[in-house]
Amino acid sequence: MIKKSTILVALFVSVAYTIFSQQKPLEIKDFDQWQRLGKKNISTTGRFASYEVELQEGDGWLVITNLNNAQPLKIPRAYDAQFTQNETFLIAKIKPFFKELRNAKIKKLSADKSPKDSLIIVDLSNYSVQKFPNIASYYISTKASLFSNLLFFKQYHSNSPQAKPDSITTLNKLYQQIDSLQKLRLKILEYGLQAIPASKPSTELNKNMANASLFVYHLDNKTKDSLGHVTEFYNSPKADILITLSPQDHKYNFLTVYNFNQNNYQNNRLELIKNIKSVKQMLIKPDLNNTSNFVCFMASSDTFTDELKQSYVAHTFKISNDNSIQKHLAFNDSSVQLKHPNWQLSAFKKLLLASNGETLYFGVKNKFIDKDTSIAEIDRVQVDIWHHQDPYLQTEQLKNNNQILKHSLLSVWNLKNESWQVLQDSNSNEDLALQTGDEHYYYYAVKTDILKHQWEGFFTKTNYVVNLNNFKTTEFLKNSRNNIFMPSANGDYAVLFDSKNNINTYQIYRASDNQWLSLPQTKTSLTNEEHDLPDDAQPYGISKFITDNAFIIYDRYDMWLCTIKNQPELFKITNGRKQKTVWRLYDVDNEPEYRYQYHANNQFIGRLFNENSKNSGLFNWNLMDNKLWVWCDTNYQVSHTIVTDEKKANILFSMERFEIPEDLYFKGVASKNIVKVSNLNLQQNQYQWGTVQLVKWQAYNQKPAEGLLYKPQQFNPQQKYPMIVYFYETYSENLHNYIEPAPTPSRLDIPYFVSNGYLVFVPDIHYKIGYPGKSAYNYIVSGTRALCKNTWVDSTRLALQGQSWGGYQIAYLITQTNLYRCAWAGAPVVNMFSAYGGIRWGTGLNRQFQYEKSQSRIGGTIWDKTNLFIENSPLFYLKNVKTPVVIMHNDADGAVPWYQGIEMFTALRRLNKPVWLLNYNGEDHNLVERKNRKDISLRQKQFFDYYLKGQGNPTWLLKGVSATLKGKDLGLGELK
């Protein structure tokens, strides 16, 4: 690894901790106060930074800091911050107090009665703060434009509570109502039901009309203008107009244009269109001369609440800077159905307008078919019909029904001659969406052999390209797998890695002449060198295009620059293989509508990681002179994401170690120094924490193995410690990761158990295809026994914990060894036969592909590999189990059908083995609700304390909790 920066060494040596004797073990109640970094911002030129500090439970805060010198400003409960383009102000929202929001949920208050956000404007010159209450949303431009010094915000109207009427007034009103009903009753008796007066149309305004107003705040002179009641507002940082959707009456809305090129923009507003209910896909784009603006949107007048039932009209306006409408065109379902009777206009595909203002891209889709309303709901039959020729299982179709109904085909409308056509085949089901509307080529695909994805786990595709100059479509690749498919920003090239057609290397498609360009051959593999799945090895990947004709290809360690001239050329940029250092560029593209990465002075920022030491760092690479320099190389974990200023010259990044919480750091382009910006989780000093080390041994298959060992902070080699073994697949790359103590969704909370006197061992596992269970045994048991050679490991007090794939491996291990005193398995598979035919309810997919091609690694069907399915199914060997085991498997698990947990529980119960099953009702594969996470965290500790420390006697563990006590007694107390 490259020599460490003395600056960093000096920086981190300063971290201090309190004396061990003053520290206490972590408890679950301590988790709530733990802090984590939230959204991070840096101003236009890098002068200021802001970051959110979030608490697990409670009120967080926002910190604003001048990166050059000044004392930071802390604002309680502030979030969603942005700097103005001129770096003069910061705008942010302030949440209501956590307790207020919690009480509103407890009382089940409606949204309009719940506490609202506030808006603050922070003057960065003196940190003075201005505040506006009851805010719905806000917008400021982050680009230089007329909007740069304007703040737009929607503010709810504050309704003062009316005084309750006195008892006499209430009684009189009741008498009046009774009298009126009695008169109506007599009329009905005399004249029949026609005496009931016809209901009058409601005069109540659209709720949104009375709900919020839009304000324009001038940041320079602190004046505020009201634009009245609005439902929505739309603008673009590249244009100087604002459009509002405002209530027209109790049913409809209208659109208004405000032109900020005019001084008196309020009085010179332009009413654009009336009698619409909703607007989708608003697009505002200035013309090439900046003398007018194009406005394109989808509008519906339907009152349906279901957006799939709504019909839309595509409107295009050209509005000059003097607010005159130069041209207005409308395109509707009737226009579509002249060519395609079963299609309609779609609002579910992004509207794009070419810079010439003549070419509009939009979507069309199949007409919505509503149910037959002549059938009463009580008589409507609900049945799923599974057919062997369906390309997708019914479960997939039902899961993706909404997505299928929204599926849209890209179309183009020529505004000059008012013609249109569809660019995709009607069977097209996958496309690479246009980003700007100015691309030269557009790519899409039609899936083939769809049925096979049930067991292969991937789709094959036939690929097409459309020339957007003449709209000619060309088929250029059949039945490809497309592991990677990346077009250049203008679409002139597409990079492809296709393992299905046995290409197994990258190729470049040139759309202009329909030619394939092959990369020069390299001796270095560009696919996964540690591949251990029964499927094709996957490539290490590529970057986005960094110019119109250049991109980066990755091997296991290094970066290769590929440039495309007449033929592709490949240049190795880094030399990481010798030192086992992985070099990768960050994707720090602040312009999501482009595929490029634009960086300051052609410099790109990247991250490096050493496989041996697990150290990471940061580097710069100059595209023009191909120079690399490392400016951060440390035995910390450097964040995988960074935040940069507008020129990508100043960056914010985070670093952490297991014993040192994540904090934010700043590096300026003109400085060699790294500045620490935040200082989180100081309360950690109050608690016993721990240390981590990389351990190595030889697995039973005679291969070198490694893993992580976490030890208590006050570790004493003269003592014996209980040890919990936790695993999934590989984990040792996380040596320097900070692990926030938190209620667990199902996994082992490592710092919590280490703080409470446990060793935690996390071995890496590498697999032999066809033998996932035995592979787990080879690495986990060999690693456990290797550590047990140390006198400080109590080999009589060992335990296992794992979730999902880890749960399966635990189920297998306890049938093969009695080494462990107890085990905790989350969502385990025990029967590979029933699991093979099961459904992943989260996606609707059948699980066959997982066993034949993916994680379960059997590599064949139950008919071809029957013996391997039996050998790897713990169900058939549960009679060997002597280890007490808790199973957590929830009834809404979308990944592993929860009947697997039931099969394991009922089998062990029948065999008279000690077993418990926890089913958190309505929960998924991993627990989501914090109350449940806290509950399982406590149960895990009670379970391991009982078996490994001989402490406690919780009722749920020793006696159970009957269904009659469900929701009344959790059984967490001591058995009396």
What do these coordinates show?
It is a single chain. With 976 residues, the chain is of the alpha+beta class. α10 crosses α11 (805-816). The protein starts with 5 loop residues before the first helix and ends in an 18-residue tail after the last helix. 38% of the residues are buried.
> What is the helix content?
10-25%
Counting DSSP H or I runs of 4 or more residues, the number of helices is 17
Number of strands: 55
Tell me the Rg in angstroms: 32 Å
What order do the strands of the largest sheet run in, or round the barrel if closed?
A: 46-47-49-48-50-51-54-55
Quaternary state of the chains:
single chain
Give the uncertain stretches in residue-range form: 1-19, 198-210
Give the class from helix and strand content and strand pairing.
alpha+beta
Topology of this protein?
Layout lengths: L5 H8 L21 E8 L5 E8 L5 E6 L6 E4 L1 E6 L5 E6 L3 H9 L10 E7 L4 E13 L9 E7 L10 H25 L15 H5 E7 L4 E7 L2 E4 L5 E7 L5 E7 L10 E7 L1 E9 L5 E9 L12 E8 L4 E7 L1 H7 L3 E4 L5 E2 L5 E8 L27 H6 L1 H6 L2 E6 L4 E4 L7 E3 L8 E8 L4 H4 L3 E8 L5 E8 L3 E4 L5 E5 L8 E5 L4 E4 L23 E6 L2 E5 L4 E6 L3 E5 L8 E5 L17 E8 L5 E7 L5 E7 L2 E2 L4 E2 L6 E7 L2 E8 L6 E3 L13 E9 L5 E9 L8 E6 L23 H6 L3 E5 L8 H17 L4 E11 L1 H12 L5 E5 L5 H5 L2 E2 L4 E2 L1 H5 L13 H6 L13 E4 L10 H12 L4 E4 L11 H20 L5 H4 L18
Parallel strand pairs: 48-49, 48-50, 50-51, 51-54, 54-55
Antiparallel strand pairs: 1-2, 2-3, 3-4, 5-6, 6-7, 7-8, 8-9, 9-10, 10-11, 12-13, 13-14, 14-15, 16-17, 17-18, 18-19, 20-22, 21-22, 22-23, 23-24, 25-26, 26-27, 27-28, 29-30, 30-31, 31-32, 33-34, 34-35, 35-36, 37-38, 38-39, 39-40, 41-43, 42-43, 43-44, 44-45, 46-47, 47-49, 52-53
